[in-house]
Specification:
It is a single chain. This protein has 180 residues and is an all-alpha fold. The chain folds into two domains: 43 residues; 118 residues, Four Helix Bundle (Hemerythrin (Met), subunit A). 67% of the residues lie in helices and 0% in strands. The protein has six helices and no strands.
């Protein structure tokens, strides 16, 4: 029995095949194109996902959220007018609260920056901030009660459930802060 030498040259095939100089041949000329197509497909899927999240499911702005609440409650004309008054009152008072409290908070931080802060002055500033916040809550509560008085029982229950739900991103933060 004689052993034949391994095949070489153009008639050889398989993974052990070698090129004209005895060097291994490249795997397949199609492999780079397959990898390129696969990479392109993955990139397109990623870009499509980003587009879908940011454009198709973009977060609603404050006005859109307020409108969503009003539509969700199916308000009639009288109820819608009361709702608009409520939202306008809460927005106005929230802006006034920020304008009143920001200088007080800034002053407190300036006092904290001193080597020896005047604790009595800082306490007084924070008491004023808390009083302003309490005043806002009382006025917002009055506006809320005036609006709720115009709603039917089922609408009132639906509104309160929307406002109290922390998971509902369609409820404006302005309304959610009333229960925080």
């Amino acid at each position: 029995m004689t052993l034949d030498p391994p095949a070489s040259g153009p008639q050889a095939s398989g993974p052990q095949a070698s090129g004209p100089q005895g060097t291994p041949r490249a795997a397949s000329p199609r492999l780079p194109w397959i990898l390129l197509a696969l990479s392109l497909a993955l990139n397109l899927a990623f870009v499509g996902g980003v587009f879908w999240v940011h454009v198709m499911h973009a977060p609603m702005g404050p006005g859109e959220r307020v409108e969503s609440v009003a539509k969700g409650l199916s308000l009639d004309a009288t109820q819608r007018a009361a709702f608009d008054r409520f939202v306008r009152t809460v927005r106005m008072r929230a802006r006034q609260l920020r304008e009143a409290n920001q200088p007080l908070i800034d002053e407190a931080w300036q006092d904290f920056a001193k080597a020896q802060p005047d604790e009595a002055a800082v306490d007084k500033l924070f008491e004023q901030v808390a009083d302003n916040r309490r005043s806002f809550q009382i006025e917002a509560g009055r506006a809320l009660r005036a609006f709720l008085a115009t709603l039917r029982e089922d609408q009132r229950a639906s509104f309160i459930a929307m406002v109290r739900s922390r998971d509902n991103r369609n409820t404006p933060p302005l309304l959610r802060q009333l229960v925080q």
